[in-house]
Specification:
Layout: E1 12-25, E2 30-43, H1 58-65, E3 73-78, E4 81-82, H2 105-110
């Protein structure tokens, strides 16, 4: 992932600079590098796709953008503010369905309330 023209513009919505993310692997008692110094810039109104083979870190990176996973290096900003936790300005559509099949649609919607 790279940013264009080597500099970040003022209309940047999402900025990642040298983002690294590690997971702790309990069975080996050491960290696993899942994302290695990823950088990108996404401007207002842009539509972006992140593609790559299974296991390359796409979902891990997006979990960090959503604030669900801390980064271990670099910086990650949305609208010029560091991402440190989930916020009302972001949403995530998970890869796996997480509905409770025995509940109605309304029951699933109000479950978290």
């Amino acid at each position: 992932m790279a940013h264009r023209n080597g500099s970040f513009g003022s209309s940047t919505k999402l900025r990642a600079v040298d983002v690294s993310i590690h997971y702790w692997i309990e069975r080996s008692a050491r960290p696993f590098l899942a994302v290695d110094r990823a950088s990108l810039e996404i401007g207002a109104g842009e539509f972006v796709s992140i593609v790559g083979p299974s296991g390359c870190g796409k979902t891990t990176f997006l979990n960090a953008v959503d604030g669900l996973l801390p980064i271990s290096g670099g910086s990650l900003e949305l609208n010029g503010k560091a991402i440190a936790k989930p916020g009302p300005d972001r949403a995530m559509v998970f890869q796996q369905p997480s509905l409770l099949p025995w509940r109605t649609v309304m029951g699933n919607v109000v479950y978290g309330l």
